[in-house]
Write a structure and sequence with these properties.
mainly alpha, 2 domains
Length: 171
């Protein structure tokens, strides 16, 4: 009985008890929350794809904007490679290898390498957008041109024209 009274007076015991009470209240709700994640993720991905397709639709006929996007893609790729090389050179040339064993060193390296991840995601997104532009641009270029169809006479008209020419020559 003395141990129970001693535990009731201890903050550690109360924090442990409150933690398990909160955990017991949250655990039954976890499956319901996790079941909604795929639907929300799917709708978010559809939203991103829709925005990309609308962007491609607005830009696909303008050659200057397409060239700008191509240059931007290659610039992001070069910036990503340069930042990676600088990071690895800095890691090898500085005493970071010795610092990396401490918690501060690991946090420092993580913060120092964050631009690499940001540039990588930006480059991959830009590359995918360029693939979409080129895909839909290619479809537009492969489609027969209406002007070409209007200027090319059908075979029947060619026969009529040659018949008219032969009749005029016989007269």
């Amino acid at each position: 009985m003395d141990k129970i009274l001693e535990n009731l007076g201890s903050l550690d015991w109360w924090f442990t008890g409150v933690f398990f009470i909160v955990l017991a209240g949250i655990l039954p709700r976890i499956p319901r929350v996790l079941s909604a994640v795929p639907g929300k993720l799917r709708s978010w991905l559809r939203y991103l794809k829709r925005n990309d397709l609308l962007w491609v639709r607005s830009i696909r006929h303008d050659d200057v904007l397409i060239l700008h996007q191509v240059v931007r893609t290659y610039a992001l790729m070069i910036a990503f490679v340069v930042v990676c090389l600088l990071f690895f050179y800095g890691f090898l040339a500085s005493p970071l290898a010795a610092i990396a064993k401490t918690l501060f060193g690991k946090i420092y390296i993580w913060l120092f390498s964050t631009p690499i991840y940001i540039l990588e995601v930006a480059y991959m997104r830009q590359r995918d957008r360029m693939k979409l532009i080129l895909k839909y641009r290619r479809h537009r270029l492969l489609r027969p041109n209406k002007l070409f169809r209007l200027t090319t006479p059908p075979a029947r008209a060619v026969r009529q024209t040659t018949n008219q020419i032969s009749e005029s020559q016989s007269l």
